[in-house]
Queue: 3 jobs
Job 1
Amino acid sequence: MKIYPNMNQNNTALLVIDPVNSCAHLNCETPEWHIHFTQIREMIPRLEQFLAAYRQKVGGLIVFTTITPWDQAHLPANLNELYTDPAATYYSDDPTGFDQQFYGVKPQPTDLVFTKNTYDAFSDLQITHEFRKRGIQYVIVTGIFTDGCVLASIVSGFSQGFNFVILADLVETTDVPVRQQLQELLLKFTFPVMYGKTISSTELLQEPSLLRSP
């Protein structure tokens, strides 16, 4: 059975949210806040393998997001105000650009890369513009963090009328137990019931309507 009746190669895009050092690299962990990325680093090789298979079997538009420097000068006013609460503050002090570099994945020349300064990928209006221009209706989602930027992007994009497919084995969050529990609830209930088909990457690559002709 098809994932969505009208989904095909031409109206589908793959969105890869924030596979960057600040969300994955060992040096960007915050042990004093119990923030570790072990589960994310285990997911990234699977994501890279999937990207290679997707390019070969499906093709089509692939979009990556990265981030601006995550500091007060680059973030919007509402995030800066939220971050006045010490429990919510999450600024980066990296001046080198290391945080924004991709971790374990490499966009290809035909891919699109957009930079965002908040959680929601669709806050960069160019993404929506490109999707509309190319006739994209269905968005396959992978990336980091399931309970943060992935969640925000799905909710925002859904409100703009896009249909979503969430790849349950290719989204991930920090090792914090409560966030892992929240991720499990999102994947088992919230996403499939409210926002989009939630399947594995293997199931997606078996979808006949997406595969290239032999």
Note: The chain has one domain: 9-208.
Job 2
Amino acid sequence: MDTNQFFLLGYISKKHGYKGNVVLYIDTDHPSYYHSIKNIWINQNGVNTPFIIENIKVLKEDQLILSLKNIDLDKCERLIKKEVYIPSSQVPELDEQQFFNRNVIDFKIYDKHEELIGTVEEIIEIPNNTLIQSSVDGIEVLIPFNDNTLIEINKSKKELTIEIPAGLIELYTNG
């Protein structure tokens, strides 16, 4: 799959009802942007397969019930846990200070004193507490990542400046 042409929107989480409808879990920072999509692509055995959405209902902000053309109860079972993509051209343009969390993987992390802390290895999203996973001196550290801790993002340099709570890094490294 050409990752420049497609954007990973989320995945089919489960079936819904008995007519072959499925629930699309939207794994983005702004799920409401995608409540009116018309088509999705699902990667099946390395091949992108387009699906036409016949009907769409909002289940929760980040979950949609989809009725897909030519998909019945038997066929929908094969779609469960499959990743869902849309063309990159359908992704809203973000300004310099906006980003999708998954796009900051491999960014360098600096504290407010411009000291290099590490590199973003993973973004861990748990309700009301997004964390950056990084390593300091070979030890895994988890750093709070939200609007209150993000000081600056520089997409062109692939850098984040984060307000790191006092003593947090030492808690991990001085154990």
Note: The first strand starts at residue 6 and ends at 16.
Job 3
Amino acid sequence: MPEPYARDVKTSPRAAVDLTPFRDAAARFASGVTVAAAAHRGMHHAITATAFASLSLEPPMVLLALDRAGQLIGLVRDSGHVGLSVLSAEQETIGRRASTRGRALQPLVDEAPTTTAVTGAPLLLGALAWFDCEVESISEHGDHAIIVGRVVAAASTDGEPLLYFARRYHRLGPQLGDAAVKR
């Protein structure tokens, strides 16, 4: 069996990249909007997260990046689970509320009504889709932690997603073709 891909990491210092053009470039990547939530010892917290991706089908896994200085990462570490809810276009208010910094941990997720599936992680009712995850791994990179979650339950419904582009919320526009992508 071939060796897993690896490369030597270059450790020589480079000039810092100016953060303004970096942020402007990153804002040009359109993404769906998720709310990541966790609960531990009677305390809950939820945040808006756009750094989310499907990672693997076998086994089913997702990837989420969280601010290392935020409150949610502590609950995710302590509980060993995270719930990810994909917001519909009708849930913009929830996305805005969950993106407010500095909110205290609460006995309930106050952004919207929730349910649970397998792990006990909060999942938003009315979400376009959700993923209930056990934490597979957490690694720290820069000011964020990357969580790999093993999906233990998932569900979806029809509807239009809430999108985030150029630091603003958007809805889908007209479809650009008739054919679906075939796999």
Note: The chain has one domain: 31-165.
